[in-house]
Amino acid sequence: MNFNNFEYKRPVLETFEKSFMTLLGDFSSAGNAAEATEKFSQIGKLRSTFMTMYNIAHVRHTINTTDKFYEKEQAYFDVTLPSYQDLVTQFYKALLQTPYRAALEEKWGSQLFVIAELSLKVFTSKVLEDLKKENKLSSDYVKLKAAAEIEFKGKKYNLSAFLPVETDDDRTIRKEAAHAKWDFYAKESEKMELIFDELVKTRHEIAKTMGYKNFVELGYNRMIRSDYNAEKVAYYRAQILEHIVPVATDLYNRQSNRLGISDLKIYDENYSFASGNPKPKGDPQWIINHAKTMYESLSAETGTFFNFMLDNNLMDLVNKEGKATGGYCTYISGYKSPYIFSNFNGTSGDIDVLTHEAGHAFQVFSSKEIGLSEYNWPTYEAAEIHSMSMEFFTWPWMNLFFEEDVEKYKFSHLSGAIKFLPYGVAVDEFQHFVYENPDCGIEKRNLAWKEIEKKYLPHRDNAGIPFLEKGGLWQRQNHIFSSPFYYIDYTLAQVCAFQFWKKDKDDHKSAWADYLRLCKAGGSASFLSLVKIANLDSPFEPGTIEEVMKPIKSYLDGVDDSKF
């Protein structure tokens, strides 16, 4: 079961397609419900084999983007996945037409058919070549960032390794580091802007070919958003503007006072305390050892899960040359194994990303026996509830990692989550502008970001850095390039996670029971249905944001952060 020993064999599309179409024909011509159910299961196993190979290749490629073999495999899947999607679309058509729908729905629930219906609205073979182009452009952006090399004071850094330098105790170094990083983006800006311009045009063309006005509705359907739309999201953003932005602005003012500076600059934003940001007190292996203790103490379920991850080498956590930026969790269904990828760099973010991605991994580990690929994960905004809530459920063990700085970490973590929300909705509003105005051009996109940034982040001073002053900051955000409209999800989930934070403080046993029930449900229900399953309030309901903020603001106001 060790990941290093997971067998990889490139799936030959022609062979896969032949087997798939044979089974699909058998499913469509099934003579009874039992036969239809059996062929449905066989199609699922075949799909699992294909996606297992894709995920193994993707993980190994992102671990080392300079590995020529897996670079070729990633390129193969970039052009093959749209064809795979075409086959799945044909399966969904047959699924919606089967006379045995009632039997399948009784076994799997209605969400499978919601997914099928929305999936048919996002794909047609007419856009196959455009989808291949979209995948390649996204990969080009990932490779461009992975190859970043920032020279600073005699050393060379990639973007992940440079983060600790950006939060140095010396403000002069922070300033110089900011200029160095954004100089990299400025140097590569033309390439990034051209990649994105092509992505926007390609996505708009796909949308038009499929009968949409623009990419917005298609983007929502791709995300399988079945119980809310762009109008509800716009209302939600307005609630963030009204109830969160003032609190976030106050937190930045408190930070400015703590640091003893009257002109907080963008390069100061991630430096929270004059005494230095809280950092883990040991190396990566030390962190893993404490994480094992933590998860064994949190619950029997998390103990079993984390030891499974350790025993089977299902995590690659440390930053290294050639490794893709960021962090993620994926699921290798053929081995029923989650996989966690991150870039430890010695900051508190190491603990955040570990607990965050462990939340994703724990969910899919908890729901893996459902046995339906559509239910491995819920839709993205629901999936992020598991990850963000896990960050808070592990608070009682943060002293293991931060020791005497544990209260500083908790204040930083909670206030950082608040400060993230305005940025999160800014990214979302920017994406709506982009896809509602696909022909506006590169310069107007940058100007739009400047205006949106000023609206949601009124405190921000870009320190005269030319790249930022022109409105280029959005170019750092992977999701904007690779996963359109996947960002508001983090903010919606954060509002739900805040509710778990309060519930856990009030009654851990009840809170954990709700969380475990949510994890075991996997993707078997829509976002708002899963919110109900977890006994949470919908972020879209009037008053939710305001109510959620009351105990959090009370907690933060009760902390004397000047002592940090």
Written overview of the protein:
The two termini are 45 Å apart. The protein has helices spanning 13-28, 33-63, 68-97, 101-108, 111-120, 128-146, 163-166, 171-209, 215-222, 230-243, 245-259, 284-298, 300-311, 349-367, 380-393, 398-402, 406-436, 442-456, 466-469, 478-482, 488-506, 508-521, 527-533, 544-557; strands at residues 150-152, 155-157, 315-318, 328-332, 337-344. The chain has 24 helices and five strands. It has a three-stranded mixed β-sheet with strand order 3-5-4, with helices on both faces. A two-stranded antiparallel sheet has the order 1-2. Helix 1 packs antiparallel against helix 2 and helix 11 (245-259) packs across helix 17. Strand 4 (328-332) and strand 5 (337-344) form a beta hairpin.
Give me the secondary-structure category: mainly alpha
- Multimer state: single chain
Radius of gyration: 23 Å
Which strand order does the major sheet show?
3-5-4
Cα separation of the termini: 45 Å
Instruction: Report the principal-axis shape.
Output: globular
What composes the largest sheet? Answer: 3 strands, mixed
The total of helices stands at 24
Outline the low-pLDDT stretches: none
The share of residues in extended strands comes to: under 5%
- Which whole number gives the mean pLDDT? 96
Would you spell out the secondary-structure blueprint of this structure?
Elements: H1 13-28, H2 33-63, H3 68-97, H4 101-108, H5 111-120, H6 128-146, E1 150-152, E2 155-157, H7 163-166, H8 171-209, H9 215-222, H10 230-243, H11 245-259, H12 284-298, H13 300-311, E3 315-318, E4 328-332, E5 337-344, H14 349-367, H15 380-393, H16 398-402, H17 406-436, H18 442-456, H19 466-469, H20 478-482, H21 488-506, H22 508-521, H23 527-533, H24 544-557
Parallel strand pairs: 3-5
Antiparallel strand pairs: 1-2, 4-5
